[in-house]
Amino acid sequence: MTGVRVAGTGLTPFGNAPERTSRDLFAEASSAAFADSGVPREDVEAVLYGNFMGELAEHQGHQGPLMAEAAGVQAPATRYESACASSGMAVRDAVMRVRNGEHDVVLVGGAERMTNLGTAGATEALAIAADELWEVRAGMTFPGAYALMAKAYFDEFGGGREDLAHVAVKNHENALPNEKAQYQKSIEVAEALDAPTVSSPLSLYDACPLSDGASALVLTSEAYAEAHDIDAPVAITGTGQGGDRMALHDREFLARSPAAREAGEAAYADAGIGAGDVDVAEVHDCFTIAEVLALEALDLEPVGEGITAARDGRTTADSDTPINLSGGLKAKGHPVGATGASQIAEVVKLLAGTHPNSEHVADATTGVAHNAGGTVASATVHVLEVAE
Amino acid sequence: MTGVRVAGTGLTPFGNAPERTSRDLFAEASSAAFADSGVPREDVEAVLYGNFMGELAEHQGHQGPLMAEAAGVQAPATRYESACASSGMAVRDAVMRVRNGEHDVVLVGGAERMTNLGTAGATEALAIAADELWEVRAGMTFPGAYALMAKAYFDEFGGGREDLAHVAVKNHENALPNEKAQYQKSIEVAEALDAPTVSSPLSLYDACPLSDGASALVLTSEAYAEAHDIDAPVAITGTGQGGDRMALHDREFLARSPAAREAGEAAYADAGIGAGDVDVAEVHDCFTIAEVLALEALDLEPVGEGITAARDGRTTADSDTPINLSGGLKAKGHPVGATGASQIAEVVKLLAGTHPNSEHVADATTGVAHNAGGTVASATVHVLEVAE
Question: Which residues form a coiled coil (chains A, B) (predicted)?
């Protein structure tokens, strides 16, 4: 089993670009990743690509070969779809393939075009990540689902809207120096509390935006990186995946994410680390409550205590374990299929000292990326470590 | 690296079942596969699932966890989408994962619900496997695309509609004893030639039908099968994948499938066999011309000579290398996401002596399954061998 290195990362700006196709977005992200990596396109042996709603937003399925073409790569390509965890799943298979010697060099990433559908259209399209027969037909959309989860959390453990507002404030603050972020804009707690309700108890500032964008990573085996003198100081040392019942009503607890716990435990075990070793993390904060649940599932906070983490400064940029230094989905944006691989890209740059927020984690050696699908019916976690 | 065994296979009937959801179909196929395997559901470590058009046909994405649930399995699940090669790609990743020790037991398969869309609706949905911007908007659908390929073949190598009719006649003949086949019905060459034109030069009998259905396989490591005394006489010994430009107009030749050639060469090399070792094959005959192109890409026929293979009896049930003894997509049916894994299931039964057509390949030890997406912009090939 060989080590897996991240040789290069590339992201488009995340934001409103309704006129751009996913192939256009992925061409930009992959070009940036190749330029960053120093790896020639000809060495790529496979393309693994995540996309969620291309069938609805672009009337385009079978995006694997299309994205290989957009990236200027002649290699077999596969599309992975796991709702908002689509490119996280692509990264997971990519890591397993490189680790096991199937390939020396892979291009992995994702893209999503969403804003061309408009807010109502995109919200409806996103709902296909829930159970159509038992949830969506009853009127459930994701703001409503996460509102149920937030309410269940408050009922079981306490906490309230102001605690969640601190998550939003923190992530907006983190996004300020991130030029690729959708919102480079500070917000205040009072502003968040005064924002229009999306689905009670969640307001507009508890929700991530709709975004267009793409992400790409060039992964290589350790042996390839050494043989070709590729500068790739960060390794992916752990990968894990978890699953849960699809519909919320089939779960024992609404305020828990067992799929994320399963993925985290598997990834930690795979890397041979514990939660206490984590120096920095990007977690899937599609809603502020999702960040709280993720912290607890990853054992970065005890169950029932994650709600105060941002408010009390345990996850802010100046804390021991900053969370979502990129700005998170909340402020950086969430082009669904691109998100999982983009989180890996952020952690790589944070650990390599090339992120605009690297100053906050100068001694960090271990990072985690957590990517979730739907109401966390799917989750994948990756551990990244400085290798050189 | 451990060997990979097929411990059990399960298929629903393929055909018109517009009232059945994909979860209903997959529950049936997976139950059959578990019953056939003797492997308990609790031992499954991952579910890998192929589906193509669930977003359009059922307004349901994120089908991975939904299908784990339908199968009664608590394990992380991933959905693969590569148009008509969706479950072939799922099998490929499943093989790599078991081979490399990531998992001992996986459930892999696929499902598609199509006929609820009606003929025009399903044809339009299928078109998302082509290039939306450069092909579909210009009016191209798959009957038209394969008609272009057939015409190019006739122009370059000769042959004609009557040759293709023999492919259809052969595959209908093969389907007669296959109780899961959509058409258990003989046809005559004259009948095929008289059938209404779908897209010249292709007529109705050159095209596979629209179908609903599901397929499932229980794969285990060799070590698991031995330790648990599982009867699994057939091994998957080779896997390969190929890719090509998405749009037909970007290819050098219309009457070639380089992606299938790449996949076949890789799979043969992986298994350490040559085309001459193949005793039986299931190939992706979404149209009769596709079977011809597949035979040539897999080196089972020289380039330019595959067109006469059925007519001259080189691929019929009584030949040395029968092709599509299941009836193929043409007569067995083509529930898109289910097809790739179902082809593996057919080859397994043919090699194990449990297929209604096994008598035609009594001494066969090596089989091949070829699954293609779109106009073969994606292809995957698997080699199966009798191991015990």
Answer: none
Token reading at B119: 């003929």
Q: Stretch B36-47: mean pLDDT, rounded?
A: 98
CA distance B121 to chain A (A): 13
Beta-carbon-side half-sphere exposure of residue A150 (alpha carbons within 13 Å): 28
Checking if the pLDDT of B81 tops 90, the result is: yes
Domain span holding position A291: 4-118+209-386
Query: Is A172 marked active-site?
Result: no
- Beta-carbon separation of A241 and B78 below 8 A: yes
Tell me the percentage of chain B whose pLDDT exceeds 90.
99
Residue A144 in any domain: the answer is: no
The one-letter amino acid at B356 = P
Please, what is the average pLDDT of chain B? 97
B134 vs chain A: nearest CA distance in angstroms?
A: 11
| Gap between the Cα atoms of A204 and A192, Å rounded | 8
Residue A24 lies in a domain: yes
Question: What are A232's two structure tokens?
Answer: 């790739």
Give yes or no for a contact between B5 and B221, defined as CB atoms under 8 angstroms apart. yes
pLDDT at A388: 67
Selecting from A77, A83, A250 the residue whose C-beta is nearest the C-beta of B61 gives A83
The domain total for chain B is: 1
Active site residue A334: yes
Do B320 and B307 meet the contact criterion of CB atoms below 8 Å apart?
A: no
Tell me which residue in A79, A96, A243 faces B100 most closely, judged by beta carbons: A96
List the CATH number of the domain containing A220.
3.40.47.10
Is B79's CB within 8 Å of A75's CB? no
C-alpha B373: how far from its chain's center?
10
Is A263 in a helix, a strand, or coil? Answer: helix
**Whole-number pLDDT of residue A2:** 80
The one catalytic residue among A103, A172, A334, A355: A334
ipTM of the complex: 0.97
Chain A residue numbers with beta carbons less than 8 Å from the beta carbon of B373 are: 62, 65
Residue A188 belongs to some domain of the structure:
no
**CB–CB of B76 and A129 under 8 A?**
no
How many C-alpha atoms does B383 have within 13 Å on its Cβ side?
27
